[in-house]
DNA sequence: TCAATTAGTCAGAAAAACATGACCACCTTA
DNA sequence: TAAGGTGGTCATGTTTTTCTGACTAATTGA
């Protein structure tokens, strides 16, 4: 009898990594909001009641590292930084809608 | 400016609950294995290296509570208990395959 | 010049998730 | 009758995640 998953970072279960990057207290909401409009840091901090800088900062970074969000700086004064969906991120939208459809 | 998510159990983001029930150290693997064959407790405990009774028990319960797995007792001696995908659980399989496709 | 905005980082505390070992009941085989 | 399998629960401890408050730096408006 073979044992699965010698370690829990195993990618024999390919959806697991994606599920991990999307899970957490704020990431689903950040992803969802990003499908509507680009995200801005202090704006999110005000909108997401109960959130905090540290967690939002980490969540945005993880979503960006996963290739779902891209970060770009607008040359305004003061500088504004926007996080918006990448191509990969956009590809996920209809799949999420299907998931929501069967809840 | 309206604030979103007065509490973090909010269902204004419907995928969030589902994402939550599928996230965690063992649940993705349990779901995946359940797409192949019904799950049995001690069998999982042996197969999933590094797992433990407490966590598997909790994970199976959460997946069952979410309506993705159903629990039934086989009248064998000794009794065997099987967890298998519900209709809802089966509906999620192709959606997960799409997600995996774009990783 | 002082307060407030922009977007964060850092250290430490609190909360949540996960693991460990003891224990339970039932049944079977030796 | 003792050991080992079935499928768990419970209390406790460890590890990971999340939150809090202090701090940074540049820019704007009063």
From TrEMBL, chains A, B:
GO molecular function, one term: DNA binding
Tagged with keyword DNA-binding: yes
The HTH hxlR-type domain, residue ranges: 13-103
UniProt key word DNA-binding: yes
Annotated InterPro entries: HTH_HxlR, WH-like_DNA-bd_sf, WH_DNA-bd_sf
Stretches of the chain forming a coiled coil according to its record: none
Keyword terms: DNA-binding, Transcription, Transcription regulation
PROSITE patterns: HTH_HXLR
Pfam entry (one): HxlR
Highest taxon above the source species: Bacteria
Protein name (Swiss-Prot/TrEMBL): Transcriptional regulator
Organism the protein comes from: Mucilaginibacter aquatilis
């Amino acid at each position: 009898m073979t044992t699965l998953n010698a370690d829990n970072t195993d990618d024999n279960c390919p959806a697991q990594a994606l599920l991990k990057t999307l899970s957490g207290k704020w990431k689903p909401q950040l992803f969802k909001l990003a499908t509507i409009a680009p995200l801005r840091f202090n704006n999110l901090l005000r909108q997401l009641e109960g959130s905090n800088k540290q967690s939002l900062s980490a969540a945005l970074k993880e979503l960006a590292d996963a290739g779902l969000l891209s970060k770009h700086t607008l040359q305004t004064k003061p500088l504004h930084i926007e996080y918006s969906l990448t191509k990969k991120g956009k590809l996920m939208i209809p799949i999420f809608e299907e998931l929501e459809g069967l809840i």
